[in-house]
Amino acid sequence: MTLAVAKLRPGRLRLRRRHPAAVVASAGFLVVVALAGLLAPLLAPHDPDTTSLLNSLAPPGTEGHLLGTDSTGRDVLSRVMYGARLSLLAPLGVVALSLVLGTALGLLAARAGGWADAVISRGMDVVFAFPGLLLAILASAVTGPGLTAPVCALAVAYTPFIGRIVRSAAVQEGARPYLEASRVLGYGEVSVTLRHLLPNILPVLVAQSALAFGYALVDLASLSYLGLGVRPPAADWGSMISQAQSAILQGSPWSGLVPGVAVLLTVIAVNVLGGHLGGTIARKQDT
Predict the structure, then answer these.
(1) Which H/E stretch holds residue 25?
(2) Average pLDDT, whole number, for the chain?
(3) 74-286 adopts what CATH topology?
(4) CB atoms < 10 A from the CB of 238, how many?
(5) Quick check: helix, strand or coil at residue 65?
(6) For residue range 81-111, what is the model confidence (pLDDT) as tens digits?
(7) Can you give the residue ranges of every domain in the chain?
């Protein structure tokens, strides 16, 4: 799975300005999901791991189960709320690690130039050739089910995407006169890079981080779907979809449909909000 290069085109920015409702709805949805996961012990109507074979595959609204139950009688709403914790935190870890590594490597390559640029760029090209999901599967196969190894593997796999974009933006921004003026005023190379160059490429980083989060969420959900993610009885949205396969075949799709929709809407909301924030930062910098 690959990450697309995020470009903040003026047309896209104007489109978002004309549709603030999409941004507000995306932000509101993410706040609700985040709070539901954070406050799950207080808000969840049932224990997410309590089974009841008498209530197996109960339809939505049955006996206090607002979104129904799964094949073992566990409340779907409660498991979705608890599952939001791992489903959101793990992709955040991937984005944070890849953002730090990619930004550092990209800036170093752009500012150092010469052989350092060539070595770093070729190294990122090598890592770029390996699919992130494949690296995560290999990491899980070596260490066993769990999220630590896949998160680290995906962070390494996503680093070249961030790094290459940062390098390209830094090279373009580095040719602007204000950087040379900063050096003339006596600022060191590190100070010029961190205080002047980095803030001006922030819109690209924000937009790309949103894309990376969406892909990381889908990749980690895919691992859990394959049984290589979270360890039972812990739940995340990917494992819930996997466990709901038999229920879907029996004509009771809600236990798999709810987490699937949660993944879809979360990815859409993050991309909409990330693009809007990146555009907002870019407009403020232009003014």
Answers:
(1) helix 20-38
(2) 83
(3) MetI-like fold (1.10.3720)
(4) 28
(5) strand
(6) 999 999 999 999 999 999 999 999 999 988 8
(7) 74-286
